């Protein structure tokens, strides 16, 4: 689930309603081609809505400034931000997919295992498309 990188790299100070709309379209297009009945749409809209709160949690007050850029933060902060986005996405997605409290352990197993694999893939793709600073 590498499409989470779109939500990670989207500019911070852009129009929030356009971001939520684009997130819905991204999730809807994935749902359309994978036949998952709006699960991806719900998960991407949740991430888009919670992204400012997650950023405030990870980056603190620095997020509020106009000159804030994701590339100017530490690697640990970038890793934590991406990991939280993936965790929230997978938690929403698998909770809606399984939709049973009786299978809570299965939800946690799927979130952790597939979340770890998604995190590794996102980090690999992120390093592939990153600009090296000299």
What separation lies between the terminal Cα atoms? 31 Å
Number of distinct beta strands: 0
Structural class: mainly alpha
List the domain count as a whole number: 1
For the sheet with most strands, the description reads: none
Low-confidence stretches: none
- Rg for CA atoms: 15 Å
User: How much of the polypeptide forms β-strand, as a percent range?
Assistant: under 5%
> Quick one: overall form?
globular
Number of helices: 5
Helix share, percent: over 70%
**From N to C, what is the helix and strand string?**
HHHHH
Report the average pLDDT across residues.
89
In brief, what are we looking at here?
The protein has 134 residues and is mostly helical. The protein has 5 helices and no strands.
Structural features, described:
The chain has 134 residues and is mainly α. It has one domain (4-128). The protein has 5 helices and no strands. It is globular and about 45 Å long. The N and C termini lie far apart (31 Å). The relative contact order is 0.15.
What is the topological layout?
Blueprint lengths: L3 H6 L6 H19 L4 H21 L15 H24 L5 H25 L6
């Amino acid at each position: 689930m590498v499409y989470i990188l779109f939500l990670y790299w989207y500019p911070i100070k852009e129009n929030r309603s356009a971001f939520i709309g684009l997130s819905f379209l991204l999730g809807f297009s994935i749902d359309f081609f994978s036949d998952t009945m709006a699960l991806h749409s719900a998960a991407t809209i949740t991430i888009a809505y919670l992204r400012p709160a997650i950023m405030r949690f990870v980056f603190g007050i620095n997020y509020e400034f106009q000159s804030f850029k994701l590339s100017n933060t530490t690697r640990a902060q970038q890793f934590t931000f991406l990991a939280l986005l993936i965790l929230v996405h997978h938690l929403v997605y698998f909770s809606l997919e399984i939709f049973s409290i009786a299978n809570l352990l299965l939800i946690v197993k799927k979130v952790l295992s597939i979340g770890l694999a998604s995190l590794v893939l996102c980090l690999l793709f992120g390093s592939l498309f990153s600009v090296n600073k000299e």
